[in-house]
Structures are given as C-alpha cells and as structure tokens.
Design brief:
This protein is α/β, with parallel strands linked by helices. The protein has a single domain (17-197), classed as Glucose Oxidase, domain 1 (3-Layer(bba) Sandwich). It is built from seven helices and twelve strands. The chain has helices at 17-24, 28-32, 71-79, 100-108, 123-128, 183-198, 202-219; strands at residues 46-47, 56-65, 85-89, 113-117, 119-120, 133-135, 137-138, 149-151, 155-157, 160-162, 167-171, 174-178. It is elongated. The relative contact order is 0.22. The mean pLDDT is 96.
Length: 224
C-alpha cells in the first residue's frame, strides 16, 4: 500500500491588493529612500532582458532549491496565485532554474515575474513573452527535478531575507522588498516624501541641498 502523499504547504497571508498596487506605483528608488539598505537586493541581480522590461510588484511566493535542482520552482508555478512574484534562492549559479516554457506557464497562471538568485536559460523566449525575469545571469545547463528545497519558506535572495507575502517591487533600476507587516506604513512614508519633494521648486531644492551639505561638513570641521 502506498503511503499517503503530503501536499506542499504554501499557505501564507498577502497584503491587500490595493496596497500592493500602490507600492507598484512607486519606483524602487522612491521606496529605497524610506527602507533600510537590508531591504534592497544587491545590484548583481539584474533584468535578464531589456529594454522595455516593465516594473513588477507583487507578494513574494518564495522558493528554495537545492544544488542543480529546480523541482520546487516547477511546483511553484502551479501553486503561486495570480499577482505573485516568484522569488527563488537557488542552490547554485551553474544550472538554470527556469527556462522559456515554464516562464510561459507561470505567466499564464498569473505570475507577474521572477526574481532569481541564480541563473536561467531561454531568456529570448521570456523576452518574447514580455515576462519579466531578474537574476544573476544565464546558463545553458538544465537543472534536474530532484526535490531538495521548499516553497513558502524564508529565503535569502540578493542578500535580502524574504518571507512569503513580502512585497517585491522591481524594475530596471533595482529590486526592493517591503516586509508584509510594514507594507502600509512604508507606502505612507514613501508617498509623503514623494509629495513633499514634488512641491519644491529647483531653487528651493538647491537651497535645502546646500544647507544639508554645509551642515554635514560643519560636523566634520569643514566648510564650503
């Protein structure tokens, strides 16, 4: 008699859709201004095709894979919900976690993009689909479906600790991660800063900027 199969656990809370959409209306730079450096992924994770790659924003569907293994990523494209961003901590940067066909499946299932701390292949196919992919690079080597890893688990991607349901905002200028429980607060702070900056004329901005530079120099015993 076969033992009972255990379903993968991938049940987690996501921020309200309107909060996710509003965060996506802000750039990574605008969000980084009110986030800690620890929430900004390293610049080595970059768009794998451009120009024209759109900004993406969505709850993180987190995945961890083993070395040369991508089974949990293949499972994730069926488990993720529409609007999610699949975020992968790969077990290596030699074998490709994803390819064109699976990106197509993910896209048809409503996934808005892939952020991969690893490599992928078939990038031209992802580009033809206009499916946004961010990663360390490309490799022609296909990973195997061995089974190591997990879904909906805490991962480290681009140097940032990411929990399932955190909001990822990414475009050609960078990738930021907004912790799920702080999403509304970060949104309010970023909006307030953007609105305040927009009210300044160039002359006012320069005056404030010079005053800030002079104040910082005085603290170091210097002046302009």
């Amino acid at each position: 008699m076969e033992s009972a199969l255990r379903p993968l656990e991938a049940d987690f809370s996501r921020p309200p859709l309107e909060v996710v959409a509003a965060l996506g209306g802000l750039s990574p730079e605008e969000l980084a201004d009110v986030l800690e450096i620890a929430q900004v992924m390293h610049h080595s994770l970059r768009p794998l095709w451009s120009p024209g790659l759109p900004r993406i924003a969505g709850p993180a569907f987190t995945v961890r894979t083993g070395r040369h293994d991508n089974l949990m990523f293949h499972a994730a494209i069926y488990l993720a919900k529409p609007g999610d961003v699949i975020v992968v901590e790969a077990g290596d940067d030699e074998a490709a976690i994803a390819g064109g066909n699976v990106c197509g499946i993910a896209q048809r299932n409503g996934v808005v993009g892939l952020v991969l701390d690893g490599v992928m292949r078939d990038v031209p196919e992802a580009k033809s689909l206009l499916f946004p992919v961010f990663g360390r690079g490309v490799s022609p080597i296909a990973a195997k479906r061995g089974g190591d890893g997990g879904v909906g688990v805490q991962v480290r991607c681009g140097g940032v600790v990411v929990d399932a349901g955190d909001v990822v905002v990414a475009d050609e200028h960078g990738i930021v991660v907004v912790p799920r429980e702080r999403a509304a607060d970060v949104l309010a702070k970023a909006r307030a800063k953007v609105e305040a900056d927009a009210k300044l004329t160039p002359a006012e901005w320069q005056k404030r900027h010079r005053a800030g530079v002079e104040a910082a120099l005085r603290l170091r015993g210097r002046s302009l």
